[in-house]
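INTERNAL AUDIT FORM
Audit reference: QA-55
Scope: verify that the stored structure record matches its stored sequence.
Auditor: D.O.
Record contents follow.
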Amino acid sequence: FDTPPQALAGHLARMLAEPNSAIFLATNGDGAAVGFSAALVGVGLEFGVTAQIESLYVTPKTRGKRVGSRLIGAALAWCEAAGAREVFAAINAQGEPGRQLERLFMRLGFAQSRRRLMYRALDEDRPGS
């Protein structure tokens, strides 16, 4: 992540306190963390309850051992239990190329979406504020 560690710690604390988000942790036999996934659910007017797998990370030494698949599976089960009708996966530029995240998600039943995701930062320096 490019996000500073202090900011990540704050985001993690907030996610853990929110009922509409969940984090799943994978550990090895020694109890050391080897990966995680994070998911969010929300309600929209057009599609009802939808979800997003917004983070997935597996340590380089653990990749290729189905840890990512299990973490996605845990997130999908949570999203379904939360009432989501559909789940989107966010893959940023850091996730590709070379990490093959898109192929992993496609193997697990995801497809390219016709919806386009656009981005805008919200901060106090933006025009009109």
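Auditor finding: record pair retrieved intact. The two ends are 29 Å apart (CA to CA).
Action required: none
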